[in-house]
UniProtKB/TrEMBL annotation, chain A:
Native source species: Bacillus mesophilum
NCBIfam families for this protein: PRK12573.1
Domain Na+/H+ antiporter MnhB subunit-related protein stretches: 8-131
Localization terms from the record: Cell membrane
Organism lineage string: Bacteria, Bacillati, Bacillota, Bacilli, Bacillales
Protein name (record): Na(+)/H(+) antiporter subunit B
Entry's Gene Ontology cellular component terms: plasma membrane
Automatic annotation (TrEMBL), chain B:
Pfam families reported in the protein's UniProt record: Oxidored_q2
Subcellular location(s) per record: Cell membrane
Protein name as annotated: Na(+)/H(+) antiporter subunit C
Organism: Bacillus mesophilum
Keywords, alphabetical: Cell membrane, Membrane, Transmembrane, Transmembrane helix
GO cellular component: plasma membrane
Recorded family membership: Belongs to the CPA3 antiporters (TC 2.A.63) subunit C family.
Residues spanning the membrane: 6-21, 28-48, 68-90
Membrane-topology annotation of the record: Multi-pass membrane protein
NCBIfam families: PRK08600.1 (NF006372), PRK12660.1 (NF009303)
Family annotation (InterPro entries): CPA3_antiporter_subunitC (IPR050601), NUOK/Mnh_C1-like (IPR039428)
Length: 141, 112, 807
């Protein structure tokens, strides 16, 4: 294939990806109270990575992000299952969640919920799957 | 609104079904996409439209639209994404191996 | 009592560990030595229960399993299950010990063998110690499956696979019919507990389902215990390694049917149907098995038919014994209690002598390379110990003193003679057949027992026909049959020890309380004086000996019976016909055309939904509650429709893909209008990624070709009709669903999400908290898809590279 020369696309991508990443993370954490959550956050993250793949070639991205996204997906599933199993330790049914409010140094009074841990698993599974799918397809030439 | 939506959903189903009944793989996948949009809208419409504010607590609204259809659809959207991906890969792999995207020519072996 | 559940669990855990042990230790040591500990320890542990069980105690232990449906893992130990538990673990220990020498660790896949064996043992223990009938059913099928795996252990052989399939088909069929019976039982009694069912005996007897459910349960028992006409699987099951034949197909698994009949005797006993079916089929099987055993030339096939016939004997005894439930307790009916006692006694005896005989046959097979009677002969001088064991086993089988078979055979004669004098259930008319058939069957039993011993050990030694020169087996292979053979003798001399500690407690589960409460005269003794039974035995020996000596003269009579009428032929042709019939029917509609399948699905959808709409009151239209429509919304709807139509009519792939993407974004806008911010966000991102995906893939897919149809019509009429039908039905369905809201939405519960889950976003709270399990399974699906895509592409790449490397 001809070496693509998209200076503008690449420059925009560099900035946009950071913004999308930040936004995805924000979406992920706001999920508890506002629109957002594991699925959307994860998909946004995956979309940002897809943008990277489209504007740069796979090898470049691979060199910089040397994560195996299949493992990300599997770890995500394991985290989700783990939070479910964790509730057995407290003699509660599978996947019981709890929450409480803590006074943290910087954030002030903050709510910490175990459901967020579960959501981390969901987000990781979504990122892992979406990126794996797109990467493997685009590698297949 | 609901009646109008029902008609629109019916049309989506009709178009999707027609596409699925064609022989080209890509058309079939596009058909499933359209049908799934129809399904999402159907579930949402069945939950009642515009019955209240978005299902977020802490705002001034007192009534909410039904959150259950939304949760269902959210799950359906993601699953739909996954199945579409699998479907796409499967079909282009099939095309590369068998050499056709015509489903009428993709039949199992006789001795199976 | 938690130990009771542990002993069932231990074999299953062992089944998991065995492969690892095999990997680590197989080079150095036969892993059978590790496995041996398990049944042996359980056996010792069960022995400690004998004092309390014989004192009339029972034990229960409850593990909640699915309490919502009243399905609990309730364990129950009484005399009957203890007898079986001891048989399973006792014979199991001996069989594993024997297998250590029988199966070579270099050549055989030992890990498979012991995994299946442990699975079987656990299932069998679970079967006899469970109280819940559904749990019993699960274990029941598990024994069938492990038996299937064990018969097919040498799966390279065609005969093994055939035998395994046959046993599987027949026993699973029986199991399923038993399940149907169980379900009927639970419908009548509203419980799954065996003991509670037994307490509602009168209710069951009066119910209209009584007869069908009894038949269904009996089919389960008869298939498992190889009763006529389901017996055909047992001879073919002999393709299994001999330790398995000794264990599953003579001592334990085939007795599961006996166990079931015994367990259900308190439920069904005392009715004419039960009496006739159980004792009638039993005595028929006894005759069928013994007559067929005589003509066999394969030693194991001979033993298989003999097992069939002995199982029939036990079955008929249980049937006769059930008569006592009709009479209740009085002096006369005590004779029927003896029939039940004889059943349990013979059950134990049969396991001892038949187990030892199987092991001896295994030794002969192992040391000479054949089990064909025509090739064997004169082994006496080479294998004296095996000969002694064979004599003990087969004389016990023939019912001769001083072996335990004599005692139970005498009791059997007593039972049938008494049964012929019964004045209930029409016994006065044809009851006389019982002793006659029993006597004839015993003569044949005597003949085949003699064949087993004297055709192999007597006669001329034919070294040329054997694969290897005959010699005595190693000590390890002789110890297990020797232990069993010594039990055969011990039980003859001290039968009442066994009777007091094990058999009478077992009877307590079979018979009504008033019978066992009054301690009836149930002493087993060898000498009753010169009574009918003794004369019958003498007759058997005399006639049997004459027949054996003249065997060559009359054995030809067997070939008079036409081969095409055998049950096996019926089974084979039935199976072949079913296969070809199923293929013909399937080929009619499974054409291999995807489009045809889709047409079936959509037609069914139109048919079912459309049909439902035609029902009175199903379709309704009510637009009064509809939300108002704004101009913009109509505009968006119009654009959506336009996008969808563009996909339909697009000539190029790119147009179609972009149109679908546009449709997705429009749907996202709709989600905003419908107050679903989460959905809108998700839809936007998903649509972006999906479109990227389409664009990536379309690169690999061919251009749209014009689908050539008949001239003049640019579409397929059938497709159009079906798709319009689907659309119409869906629209009508949606409208009528919307117009007739019958229930209040349940979502008000979730509106407390801030109090319950600490989340203000209700949708998110539903996803991660209230219905977290759904989401968890969903990400499972996602991950599986990711891995699936990866494998689909990468595997091919790897293969292609390999191919290119080869070129």
């Amino acid at each position: 294939m001809k070496e693509p020369n998209d200076v503008i696309l690449r420059s925009v991508t560099k900035v946009a990806v950071v913004i999308i990443f930040t936004f995805s993370i924000n979406l992920f954490f706001s999920g508890h109270h506002l629109p957002g959550g594991g699925f959307i956050g994860g998909l946004g993250f995956a979309a940002a990575l897809t943008l990277l793949f489209l504007s740069y070639d796979i090898e470049t991205v691979r060199e910089n992000i040397s994560l195996d996204f299949k493992k990300v997906a599997v770890v995500g599933v394991l985290i989700a299952v783990g939070t479910g199993l964790g509730s057995f330790l407290f003699d509660a049914p599978f996947l019981s969640h709890t929450f409480d409010y803590f006074d943290l140094p910087i954030f002030g009074k903050t709510e910490l919920a175990t459901a967020v841990l579960f959501d981390v698993g969901v987000a990781m599974a979504v990122i892992g799957t979406a990126v794996t799918v797109i990467m493997t397809i685009s590698e297949d030439r | 609104m609901e009646t109008l939506m029902s008609i629109l959903i019916g049309l989506f189903f009709a178009i999707g079904t027609y596409l699925i009944l064609t022989k080209t793989l890509l058309r079939i996948i596009l058909g499933t996409s359209i049908i799934s949009h129809g399904v999402h809208l159907l579930i949402l419409t069945m939950g009642g439209v515009k019955a209240g504010g978005p299902p977020l607590l802490g705002f001034e609204e007192i009534t909410f639209t039904d959150p259950i259809p939304q949760a269902l659809i959210l799950t359906a959207i993601v699953i739909n994404f996954a199945t579409t991906a699998l479907f796409l890969v499967l079909s282009y792999r099939a095309y590369k191996v068998i050499g056709t995207d015509n489903t009428e020519k993709m039949r199992g072996n006789e001795d199976e | 009592m938690v130990w009771l559940s542990i002993i069932i669990l231990v074999p299953f855990i062992a089944a998991i560990i065995v492969p690892f042990l095999y990997k680590v230790f197989n080079q150095k040591i036969h892993i059978g030595w590790f496995v041996l500990f398990i049944p042996f320890l359980i056996f010792i542990y069960l022995l400690t229960y004998i004092p309390s069980i014989s004192a009339g105690k029972t034990f229960t232990y409850l593990v909640q399993w699915i309490p919502t449906y009243d399905i609990n893992f309730e364990l129950y130990m009484d005399g009957l299950s203890l007898v079986f538990g001891l048989l399973i673990t006792g014979i199991g220990s001996l069989v594993i010990f024997y297998s250590i020498f029988y199966l070579s660790k270099e050549r055989e896949a030992l890990h498979n063998f012991y995994v299946y064996l442990m699975m079987f043992m656990g299932a069998m223990l679970g079967l006899v110690f469970s109280d819940n009938i559904l749990v019993i059913y699960v274990f029941w099928e598990l024994t069938s499956i492990s038996s299937f795996l064990l018969i097919a252990y040498w799966y390279q052989r065609q005969r093994s696979r055939y035998g395994a399939q046959k046993s599987m088909l027949i026993t699973i069929f029986g199991g399923l019919s038993m399940l149907a019976g169980f379900i009927m039982l639970s419908i009548i009694t509203d419980t799954y507990s065996m003991r509670e069912i037994a307490s509602q005996m009168d209710l069951i007897h009066g119910h209209e389902l009584f007869f069908p459910l009894m038949i269904l349960i009996l089919i389960g028992a008869f298939t498992k215990s190889a009763q006529f006409p389901f017996s055909i699987w047992l001879p073919d099951a002999m393709e299994a390694p001999t330790p398995i034949s000794a264990y599953l197909h003579s001592a334990t698994m085939v007795k599961a049917g006996i166990y079931l009949v015994a367990r259900f005797t308190p439920v069904f006993g005392g009715t004419a149907e039960w009496f006739w079916l159980v004792s009638g089929i039993g005595i028929l099987t006894l005759l069928y098995g013994s007559i067929n055993a005589v003509r066999q030339t394969d030693l194991k096939a001979l033993l298989a038919y003999s097992t069939i016939s002995q199982l029939g004997l036990i079955m008929s005894l249980l049937g006769i014994g059930s008569a006592i439930l009709y009479f209740g307790y009085n002096d006369e009916s005590s004779v029927y209690a003896i029939a039940s006692l004889a059943a349990v006694f013979h059950l134990v005896n049969h396991s001892t002598f038949k187990g030892s005989l199987f092991m001896v046959v295994g030794i002969i097979d192992h040391e000479t390379g054949t089990r064909d009677i025509r090739k064997l002969g004169g082994l006496l001088s080479f294998m004296p110990i095996s000969f002694t064991l064979a004599v003990i086993g087969s004389f016990a089988m023939a019912g001769l003193p001083p072996f335990n078979g004599f005692l139970s055979k005498e009791m059997f004669f007593t039972a049938v003679v008494n049964a012929s004098q019964l004045e209930i259930f029409n016994m006065e008319t044809i009851g006389v057949l019982f002793p006659v058939i029993a006597w004839i069957a015993s003569v044949f039993t005597f003949v085949y027992s003699m064949i087993l011993v004297f055709k192999t050990f007597g006669g001329k030694y034919k070294p040329k026909m054997l694969e290897k020169p005959a010699h005595e087996a190693p000590l390890g292979m002789l110890i297990p049959p020797a232990i069993l053979a010594s039990l055969v003798v011990i039980f003859f001399f001290f039968p009442n020890v066994l009777a007091n500690y094990l058999l009478k407690p077992a009877l307590a589960s079979l018979l009504p309380e008033e019978v066992t409460a009054v301690d009836i005269e149930m002493k087993i003794s060898a000498w009753h004086g010169w009574n009918t039974e003794l004369f019958m035995t003498i007759g058997v020996v005399v006639i049997g000996s004459i027949l054996y000596i003249l065997l060559k003269k009359w054995i030809g009579l067997y070939s008079v019976y036409p081969q095409s009428f055998t049950l096996n032929r019926l089974y084979d042709s039935g199976l072949a016909k079913m296969e070809s019939g199923a293929k013909t029917i399937t080929d009619q509609y499974m054409t291999g055309s995807l489009r045809a399948y889709m047409i079936y699905i959509f037609s069914l959808l139109i048919f079912v939904w459309g049909g439902a709409l035609l029902l009175p009151g199903a379709f309704s239209i009510d637009v009064s509650n509809d939300a108002p429509v704004s101009f913009y919304e109509v505009g968006i709807m119009g654009s959506m429709l336009a996008a969808a139509l563009t996909v339909l009519f697009a000539k190029s792939r790119l147009t179609a893909i972009i149109a679908v993407g546009a449709l997705g974004y429009l749907v996202a806008i709709f989600f905003v209008l419908f107050r679903a911010p989460d959905l809108a966000l998700t839809q936007l991102v998903v649509e972006t990624v999906t479109t990227a995906l389409f664009l990536l893939c379309f690169y690999h897919l061919p251009k749209f070709k014009k689908e050539k149809e008949k001239k003049g019509i640019p579409f397929k009429p059938l497709n159009l009709i079906i798709s319009l039908g689907v659309g119409t039905v869906v629209t009508l369905f949606a409208i009528s669903a919307n117009s007739s809201r019958m229930f209040e939405p349940v979502s008000s519960y979730f509106e407390d999400s801030y109090e319950l889950a600490g989340a203000r976003n209700i949708v998110n709270a539903i996803l991660v908290d209230f219905r977290g399990l759904d989401t968890m399974l969903e990400i499972f699906v996602l991950t599986i898809v990711g891995l699936g895509v990866y494998t689909l592409i990468k595997l091919r790449l790897a293969r292609r590279e390999k191919d290119e490397g080869a070129e």
